[in-house]
Amino acid sequence: MLNTTKKSAAISLFVAAISCSLGLPLKAETLRQAMSAAYNNSGLLDQNRALLRAADEDVAQAAAALRPVANWSASVRDQRGWTQSASTGNTRLFNNSPSANLAISAELTLFDGGQNKTALAAAKEAVLATRQSLISVEQQILFAAVDAYMKLRRELETVGLRENNLLVIQEELRAAQDRFDVGEITKTDVAVAEARLAASTSALAAARGSYIQAQEAYQQAIGAPAGELAEPTSTPKLPDTVEAVK
Questions:
Q1: Cβ neighbourhood burial of 52 (10 Å; 0-12, 13-18, 19+)
Q2: 20 to 30 A from 105, CA-CA: which of 78, 135, 177, 242?
Q3: For the residues 180-206, what does the mean pLDDT come to?
Q4: Is the pTM of this model over 0.70?
């Protein structure tokens, strides 16, 4: 019985250590908050938004190719200097010859075999495809957030069940040892109870390992460590048919 009591105390200390290391907040995080955090923290969404902006710029460039292109240039020249007249000998004349030029030209493609219009249409289709890709990424991120949230809740519940089961088996082992002490059962019965305790301890360790993995998956999906998770609310009533959705 003393060994069983020591095991129970060690398990309690281990559970307390895990709870402290998690740093759980006082207020539980809801599924809606987790989805919002995943949406705001996603670097993949930022990348796809940048791709959409680049596709919009391609449309602007393709549209510019169909418009007239105006070019202009301006120059100012001021030439000054002294010249000496050959007829008068020593007479020097001052020359001042300012000049200004302004040139304007315009270019417009009249016919290119539809190349520019085709490029504009392709750029617009690329924007639509990029936008749909962004929507798909948004859905994937939100789904991953829900999946990570619910799996972490499941693993947490599993750990709780395994801990309760271990406590029950510990009590059964103590009872078996007491009955063995008074001669009601044999040593084999005690060994069976000990084997059940070992199996329950192993199952609890596996559940804790799965819980830690679920925490890592949650942090990867949400972009922040998991705290205390609130109980999810009931799902809304879905339409019975596809026509009802339309």
A1: middle
A2: 78
A3: 95
A4: no
